[in-house]
């Protein structure tokens, strides 16, 4: 533990043992290199990046050769070897190396230093400001070249460029500080504009670019250089509303809007490029064959032949390959240059500008805008300015993050951490500062004013920010005394206590209704970021899968609705590391819009860094600091729950506030469950109170719980014996809607015969009454002809009545109104059927109706069961179905059909075919009746 609590350790170089060079490899796009393999225990993914510098040795660096990473994927690393390796080793593929990997990213420094070397033979851009420290800028040269006298603003206002004070533009809604900065940006050839957090830097930049595009007709594009890909995307997306002639350099854009404007989408196919690539691939194969030959000769000890001639041939092949690489690169860059010259705006990152400096010099951009200029090393900005540059606009804020040299001594002894922006301001160059912030709550801005900004004011719109749901405070600092720790071979720190707290707090806020995109977890150390991401992954919770977690240094220029900040550091040695930097503190405290929650060791911070004493005083004046954070249940907002760690928040998420929910339900009862965050609207919740409804005409109470479906009443209601009007068939094989007479409140449905036959009445003791048919042609079974004799159809209202040898479908139902349907077993006339009939039947229940037995059919023709009733009408009215045996004149229990007792059913007079038809019909009808849609119909 003592070892883990040591101060930050500067480890500039990492070492990897047992590294193998596998062999030559050709990469699509015209690159040649060697694939290398790390041992399994090396965490090379964190060490190797595109452009990284590697040093290979087998004798503890008494001799070594270098290599640079030219391609990297999840499974392999391709490097370009320094030709020096030929003088040191007969065959690099036969050795195991120790590799040194510097912490710093080598590629951008290489391009910057190369650019500075070339500048010795070129005109130095903006020399009188950068070198001679002139603080009185003049208008850009192109204004005189184009004879510009006025600028037209937004197509409405016309201003005199030379006039010292421009009129106010009310329609543009500039505040006074924005107005001054806007004028300075358009009339001074070298200008610095300070943009504190939330003061509208992007809006001002877009207005400046729009005005230049409208008024300055030059033959070169405007060059926009940004520190980050996110900032570049944000500005270029805004410029798209003004012009579509945009080119973005670089492949790390996350904007779908800018995909079609990437330089790679506009590169024409170069004549001969394919031939060059084929030549390179062929030479790479020859090189690999030569390498294999050396391996074979080394393995064969009986062959004593010098390999020098093979190595010389390999050197020649490699030289030819390098020449081809240069030709391909020149062809590509020439094509890119032609595309960029046709654009109005070209955008790239500061690293890309340094890499492409020779080509930017050829492009000759006269207007250059640098975003986040106060965060970029001065040397990087200078190399991004071509010798033809006439107008430089620097946007930045030297109160936020400064440049970070990888070598600490460069900051301590040579002030490399002072940007060109800050140096120009220190030299007395007039700096226009935006002083109205539109981003954060006033209480948030009080943490940085006047600590970092003396005259920053709040726009009136910031006072109307919504309160954070489920939280007692919108701003709060949670104090603790838990220790941090440091992993072996890591310069960074982590704090498990804080990690668990911020994860559970984010989860709690998401449960309150916020989306994952509304919340960002920030940490002051990269190792804490990795630890939090790993912990989120281990929770395997979908509500956290897309949660944003970032380091403070990578979040400058960004914001979010809710920020949860982990300060990480905690020890007994008063070492706070990065947190002593006021610039980093300023960024950390200014990212939130609506909700801001910080967890850290305030006692340690106050003792170690003076800036935190002012922050603590601001928090205390707002009553926004303490050992516990008060959250409240949205169901019971008057009850505050203090939490101090992640475990306590997790318990609330799992169990609520331990009080009875008590929410009012639609049924009139209150929720009796313990407080719950899930299903707050009680869509899935089923009330457990006793049901208050009646289920029959005799006002019998429902025996079920309120949230359950009311069952049919078990009582039987006597039905008056009244004449029954017949059902009339009007078309073949279809039943018409049931004829209802207003004189009969309860009407049984009847099926009647097509030919004059007897019809069974309500009571078996009464004589039968002939049925009536309105159709001249008898209703025929499907598949039969007009000469066939249709079977007789009967109906009965008594389930136990035997109908002799009649073989037809029988159903009984009682109808009152078009929707209030009941069966003879459900006598409540005022309640519609709401449950499938199968729920109320036992295995021995004899049901209404009779299914046709195929043992007797007209003229020996088989007859389908479904020929004799309208299937949809039958299903949607919830008719109970059963079987009556024609041979034994007795009823067959439904269980024989449902339980597939075919032999028993046959013994009681039901044929195999009839049995299967009955079962199919019963199962089908059961599914239909169970459908809520059909029941409603």
Automatic annotation (TrEMBL):
Family matches, as InterPro entries: DNA2/NAM7-like (IPR045055), DNA2/NAM7-like_C (IPR041679), DNA2/NAM7_AAA_11 (IPR041677), P-loop_NTPase (IPR027417), SF1_C_Upf1 (IPR047187)
Keyword Transmembrane: no
Entry's Gene Ontology BP terms: regulatory ncRNA-mediated heterochromatin formation
Gene3D superfamilies given in the database record: P-loop containing nucleotide triphosphate hydrolases (3.40.50.300)
Region (Disordered): 756-792
One GO CC term on file: nuclear RNA-directed RNA polymerase complex
Domain DNA2/NAM7 helicase-like C-terminal residues, every copy: 417-602
Keywords of this entry: ATP-binding, Coiled coil, Helicase, Hydrolase, Nucleotide-binding
An example molecular function term from Gene Ontology annotations: helicase activity
Domain DNA2/NAM7 helicase helicase residues, every copy: 174-403
SUPFAM superfamilies referenced in this protein's UniProt entry, alphabetically: P-loop containing nucleoside triphosphate hydrolases (SSF52540)
Keyword Hydrolase listed: yes
Coiled coil: 307-341
Domain of life: Eukaryota
Name of the protein in question: Helicase ATP-binding domain-containing protein
